[in-house]
Amino acid sequence: MTTPASPELAVQTAIEDAAELVRKAKRAVVLTGAGISTPSGIPDFRSEGTGLWSRDEPLEVASLNTFRTDPQRFFEWFRPLAGQIFYANANPAHTALAQLEHAGHIKTIITQNIDGLHQKAGSTCVVETHGTMRTLICASCYQKYGAEIYLKPFIDEGRIPLCELCNGILKPDVILFGEQLPQAAWVQAQRVVRQCDLMLVAGSSLEVLPVAGLPIQALDRGAHLIVVNNTPTYINVRADVVLLKDVASILPEIAKRVLYG
Ligand SMILES: [Zn+2]
Q: In this structure, which residues have their CB less than 5 angstroms from ion ligand 1?
């Protein structure tokens, strides 16, 4: 093995290696986190100093308890975030993954994000482990609603979404602090990870359990691992390929090589 002559060459080599693993994989799974949506302007609420999530004690206000006891306060806090998500567009990283799925190189995307940007980019097999902004659920009678028609009046005029059947308050279908992960999504995520022969971690620092443990499960069953994230993760030492880079620049490069050689 030769030492790459420059950092740029090392990156190119890693991109080639990643593309080769994706090309050879039969059941590739992608795990995405906040880092894939920051290029679309959506702040990572768990990072310090990034926009609205870090002010006003987000852990407390973004909780099921606040939603139940002081919905007005919850929705005031939630409104700018909902606006950012509603008007956000998919970025080249989302698009690259959608292209790879359509070409048959990716089976499933497991995401910790609630923004629906994978679907906006055209991905169809997306497991949302932290819930989604695309649907709302009545806190009283559990009727589900598509979020689209409720979100715009809420974002633009502050109108809190109400159930058409019982007038209960509609809760965004996202996992608030104090809530369990959605059972069906979690079961599905674990199933596809058990079956995968390649996991690509993209834009997740793998700090939030239990999702952060999924790469271990994949590795323990003999899958290959690629990590593309601009900060190191705990699992990098066990990865076949690590790209400490922005996903929006790297994933399109990988997809290009997989799809066009
Ligand atoms: Zn209801």
A: 138, 140-141, 143, 163, 165-166, 168
Number of residues written out for the chain: 261
In this predicted model, what pLDDT tens digit does every residue of 147-191 receive, in sequence order? 989 999 999 999 999 999 999 999 999 988 888 888 999 999 999
d(CA 199, CA 31): 7
**pLDDT for position 56:** 52
Q: What is the pLDDT of residue 60?
A: 80
Give the distance (Å) from ligand 1 centre to CA of residue 166: 4
Residue 58's pLDDT is: 65
Please report the DSSP string for 82-119 in residue order: HHHHHH----HHHHHHHHHHHTTS--EEEE---S-HHH
Q: What spacing in Å lies between the alpha carbon of 66 and ligand 1's midpoint?
A: 19
130 is known as an active-site residue: yes
Radius of gyration of the chain (CA): 19
Cite the beta strand spans of the chain per DSSP E.
28-32, 108-111, 126-128, 131-138, 144-146, 170-174, 198-202, 224-228, 241-243
Q: Which two tokens stand for residue 212?
A: 């952060």
Residue segments in the chain with a per-residue pLDDT below the cut of 50: 48-54
Q: What are phi and psi of 52, to 5 degrees?
A: -70, -25
